Amino acid sequence: MEQLIIFLVLLTLGFGFGRLNERRHFASIRQREQQYSHLLCFSFRHLPQGCHSEGQLVTGSVVVSIDYFKRIAAGLRGLLGGRITAYETLVERARREAVLRMKAEAEQLGASKVINVKLETASVFKNAQETVGAVEVVAYGTALR
Amino acid sequence: MKYSNSQPPEGINYSQQSPLGEFAWMLGAVLSGLAIVLLVLHFLAAWALPFIPFAQEKKLFNYIAQGLPGALQETSCTNKQALLQQLANNLAGHMDLKDEMAIKLHYVNDDTPNAMATLAGNIYIMQGLLDELETENGLAMVVAHEIAHVKHRDPLISFGRGLVSSMVLSLVGAGGAQDLSLLAAAAWQLKFSRDQEAAADSEALAAVNRHYGHAQGAEEFFQLEQVQAVDSAWGDFMSSHPLSQARLEGILRFQSSNVQNNQSKTPLPAALKASCADSALVK
Q1: What is the crossing angle of helices B180-188 and B154-171, to 10°?
Q2: Which of B28, B196, B151, B132 is nearest to A79 (CA)?
């Protein structure tokens, strides 16, 4: 019974704070995406025609933790199969945040665009049992003036 | 060729719906699946576990018993234990036990009015029970009831059910790991179903009837207030009337249909009432 109460408290805390953080983070991401909309990102590797600017490596990285609610929801998905929607929002936030941080660095360098943008992800608590998982996303590219 | 970046679209890579509905659905599916699995194992245990040889049950108990508190492993009073063992042997003689089923009585100096059977024919009688009872007939009914549980392999079935359930629960992350002290605690807190209790009652009544030539006094323990100790908590929970009432009525029915000429009750030996130091002197 005690364990059940602790579980429910953790679940409620995880859900409440998790939702609050997620909502705030998404609002902040959308606002900054507007702010940096003049800075263009491209996936191609070569300099655009007519561009003779020097290139600079820019990176942005972020680590986002799952909350207790997401962990339990993902655990249930692990039994039933299907989309882990609890993780999808997490990875989406991490991806967009990493690109924004990369853009922030590019702006400091006075760049107007970033080419050859790549994204990489890593699980911070890989294979560790009984720990709360977290995802790292790194975005990097070549900034051009 | 003109390039542009648009705002990332919302709601394609992730769901914007509240996760609560999905969570409730998943939880319901997993819990009902779990309930079905546990139910199947519950019935499977009653069918399969009695096939385990009694000798194996003894080995299992010898291992588990190391986790029991010291007071339960050694008796504090050999006189009382010998008297109880004698009574159990007499009763067991009327109960068609298999040859390898040895009944071992343990006296426990504890105020709780209780008696219980666990694995490998080990039966524990508390001093609290001896204090409450006035006749040997009442004690014999309780002892025979516990022997009947052993005969029906109820402790093994109940223990197996608990073990299998906790294993299934630990598979989905809801149960703890099993160590010796937890196993011992489980063996000490066996719960029997209503059917198991009813079967043990009728078996015990028949044995008491054969031993004394009548079944008078068998109801004594059930007439006492402290019946909850031997009742299954689950049974009490499931039925609107206390389980002990139904069991008491069963005993009274048996008595009225087995009326004998000589129905005198045997008083409880004074040595069982006395303190342990005096019990050797009292005859």
Answers
A1: 130
A2: B28
For residue A16, give Cα distances in angstroms to A28, A76, A94, A132: 18, 19, 20, 17
Contacts with B, A 54-73, CB within 8 Å: 69-70, 72-73
A41 vs A32: CA distance, rounded Å: 15
Cα dihedral B142, B76, B283, B147 in deg (nearest 10): 20
**Domain range enclosing A27:** 2-144
Pairing of strands A113-123, A40-41: parallel
- Quote the number of domains for chain A: 1
- Dist. CA B43–CA B49, nearest whole Å: 10
B234 in contact with chain A, both atoms CB, cutoff 8 A: no
Per-residue pLDDT tens for A26-81? 999 999 999 998 898 989 888 877 777 788 899 999 999 888 898 888 888 888 89
Q: What is the CATH number of the domain that holds A129?
A: 3.30.110.70
